[in-house]
Known about the structure:
CATH architecture of the largest domain: Up-down Bundle
Mean pLDDT: 95
Structural class: alpha+beta
Strand content: 5-15%
Number of strands: 4
Radius of gyration: 17 Å
CATH topology of the largest domain: Glutathione S-transferase Yfyf (Class Pi), Chain A, domain 2
Number of domains: 2
Order of helices and strands: EHEEEHHHHHHHHH
Amino acid sequence: MIRFYQLKRTWGLPNLCHSCCKTETYLRMAELPYEVNATLPPMAPKGKLPYIVDGSARMGDSRFIVRYLKKTYGDHLDQQLSTAQIGAGRAMQRLLEEHLYWVTMFTRWEWTRENWETNKTAIFSGIPVLIRDVAAYHTRRGIRKQLWGHGTRRHKPEEIFELGFEDIDAASNFLENKPYLLGETPTSFDATGYGFLVNTLACPIESPVKDYALTKKNLVDYVNRMQTRYYPDLVAA
Length: 237
């Protein structure tokens, strides 16, 4: 049994952590048995979530986790994809993971006090009161440094949101009227698509990027389709 470690569930989503949501979605798509354990990033092998323990293997980072799972248990999700489809899927994956992600992180950790308080409560409420504010403060300071190092925080908020709009347009145009990112059948790239888009459209963090994404019917339908198919337990709840 694969032991899967992530942040606790909240907001009615599989996880408020984009990569945790991506990884659990892949586990469900690949029909791999697993157990969920709630933890915090300092416990992870690379200091960030998610991570898995599978026998003697202990591995962090969603990209390497998915690669390991494919190699160890087979890859029936992507075996029919052409090299061109894999390249296109990888490009969309990188857009979501390496750019839209930072736009959404800005909205959670930096943009408004209301968003920060919502985010803080979701992540740190389980920590003992005596250290909760200290842990939140130091974590937020670290994230803000990452946002600066990435370059996102060097821009004005309206400039960040303009870049986010471009990402949403790209994702919507890429999906077009297909049920899944690469066609009629879901692939591992849809684990990323769902994990990162649901954390833009369906979380209680308000932003112009979220508002804009909600105008894209195909993205809304896509997120709902993935959630209904792979998280019927959450839909029912």
